[in-house]
Amino acid sequence: MEIGDAPIDIGGARACGMRGIRVRTGKYREEAVRQSGITPDLASGSLADLPRHL
To answer: Contact, 44 vs 21, CB < 8 A?
Structure first.
């Protein structure tokens, strides 16, 4: 599993057969996400929210 804020983080995870979780922090930009076409397995607003999803 890969947790990241940029589309390339999620794309890399998916390319390796791992789950990708997008966290809307750091480098996260809505426009970049839309343009990337990369869909995460889960999207979260905070790292603190992740334990309840795992």
So the answer is: yes
Residue whose C-alpha is closest to residue 53's, from 7, 6, 3: 3
> What are the angstrom distances between the C-alpha of 43 and each of 3, 18, 35?
10, 15, 16
Rounded distance between C-alpha atoms, residue 24 and residue 10, angstroms? 12
Whole-prediction pTM value? Answer: 0.69
Q: Give the separation between CA 13 and CA 20, rounded to whole angstroms.
A: 6
pLDDT tens-digit series, residues 7-36? 888 888 889 999 888 888 777 777 887 888
